[in-house]
Amino acid sequence: MAVKITAVAKQLPQYYKETKDIIPFVKLWMQDQEPRFQRKVIKIFEGAAVDKRYSIMHPEEVFTATSFEEKNNIYKREVVKLAEQSLKKSLEKVNLKPTDLDYIITVSCTGIMIPSMDAYLINSLKMKQNIMRLPVTEMGCAAGVSGIIYAQNFLKSNPNKRAAVVAVEAPTATFQLNDYSMTNIVSAAIFGDGASSVILSSYEEDKGPKIIDEEMYHFYDATEMMGFKLVNTGLQMILDKEVPDKIAAHFPNIIHPFLEKNNLDIAAINHLIFHPGGKKIVQTVEDLFGSLGKNIDDTKEVLRKYGNMSSATVLYVLERFMDKNLAKGEKGIMLSFGPGFSAQRVLLEW
């Protein structure tokens, strides 16, 4: 029984700025720092390969000294709105109602809320009272693919069911105003906010690329490479500069055995649906895939237009492929990396 991805729909927050228009805010933030350091920070923003990013709050709010509670309250209020808007869009694409869903997975790591956003969606959209729900809260950038993996495992055991994966992230709510570390600066330069929803189905008549296989790959002794540290001022980003090199070192073991298990090699893969973690990670993966005759142009374009929206970003890349009307039999591999450290993979066939 095939599980298919039938629809993907994104939803962007109301506020947005081009990078050139964020620079004045950055300069004001850095005004008490040493001039040479200030120039370095501006270059990081200008060279991050992100032209524009969206936010759940105005830039003035991002760069205002507010408490963790105040920022998290904005997060709670806005992510539920974005989740509902993106889910409605994805359902409309395939002419479904909220009551047609049997399983809902909500994904977010950039704020804290209990109950999780799926509970609010069940109420506001009047979903089935017996719908299965799974909040995924601590898998970072990898969780968009993780959610699809969890949905696939539910649906392949349950014929004639449908699932939604709803990923909503607001990294701007985690920005640390008094932290001038390279990690905080680089994070601020590459991250943006956004939401996306995916509909999956085990109905035979539903259309869309089918999931051939899925798998996770866990790196040993790398738990400190990526994630968040909970501090008094909120969620403080952890992002090791060695992440691109770590990915490069493990890349053959991540890709080739997974494809060989399905009697395939990289030559058989037509499309790369890769999460744009940041400029350096994109360059690393582009070099690796480029040597194999592939490109990640859609990944670079999503990074340029929206920045890294953590778990939701790879779903923006997926939507671009879903909108292309690809030929029957073409294959794609979804790939994302996240805290743990781990790589998540899904093999698709149109």
Q: What string, H for helix and E for strand, traces the elements in order?
A: EEHHEHHEHEHEHEEEEHEHHHEE
User: Mind telling me the CATH superfamily name of the largest domain?
Assistant: Thiolase/Chalcone synthase
- Tell me, what is the CATH class of the largest domain? Alpha Beta
SS-based class: alpha/beta
What do we call the CATH topology of the largest domain? Peroxisomal Thiolase, Chain A, domain 1
Cα Rg: 20 Å
Strand content: 15-25%
Q: Please state the second-level CATH architecture of the largest domain.
A: 3-Layer(aba) Sandwich
- Helix % is 25-40%
* Main sheet: strands, sense, barrel: 5 strands, mixed
Q: Strand order, main sheet: write it out.
A: 1-7-6-4-5
Number of strands: 13
Low-confidence stretches: none
Domain count: the total is 2
Shape: globular
Q: Taking all residues together, what is the mean pLDDT? A: 93
How far apart are the first and last residues' alpha carbons, in Å?
A: 15 Å
Number of helices: 11
Helix-strand layout with pairing:
Layout: E1 4-11, E2 15-18, H1 19-29, H2 35-46, E3 52-55, H3 59-62, H4 68-93, E4 103-107, H5 117-124, E5 132-136, H6 143-156, E6 162-169, H7 182-190, E7 194-201, E8 210-218, E9 226-231, E10 234-239, H8 243-261, E11 271-274, H9 279-290, H10 297-306, H11 313-322, E12 331-338, E13 342-349
Parallel strand pairs: 4-5, 4-6, 11-12
Antiparallel strand pairs: 1-7, 2-3, 6-7, 8-13, 9-10, 12-13
Helix pairs in contact: 1-2, 2-7, 4-5, 8-9, 10-11
